[in-house]
Amino acid sequence: MRTPTRTPVSMRAEVRDRGPIPRPSEGATNRGVREMLFYEALAKARIREAEEEARRYRIARRLIAGRRWAWLARYASARAERARLTA
């Protein structure tokens, strides 16, 4: 891997080229704040996806439970009918 060559740069010239430092009240955006907002938005999106997945899982579990109770009711009814016929 080739490392890039570095040339010394005068900090004074770099500061002069930038101009005055903008204040946050002047509408300047801070890169750190933007990155934080990006990761915050990403985290919120993941939380929403997890909540949606949990909601779908709950619905599926309720459906399965309903089917199980319906099967159990049919089984109990059939068993009671057989018991009446043999008694």
Outline the secondary-structure elements.
Layout: H1 11-18, H2 31-86
Describe this structure in words.
This protein is mainly alpha-helical and 87 residues long. It has a domain at 29-86. It contains 2 helices and no strands. It is rod-shaped. It starts with 10 loop residues before the first helix and ends with a helix. 0% of the residues are buried.
Number of strands: 0
How far apart are the termini?
A: 89 Å
The parts where pLDDT drops under 50 for at least 5 residues are none
* Radius of gyration from CA coordinates: 34 Å
> What is the string of helix and strand elements?
HH
- Major sheet: size, sense and barrel closure? none
Strand content: under 5%
In short:
The chain is mostly helical and 87 residues long.
Features:
single chain, 87 residues, mainly alpha, 2 helices, 74% helix, rod-shaped
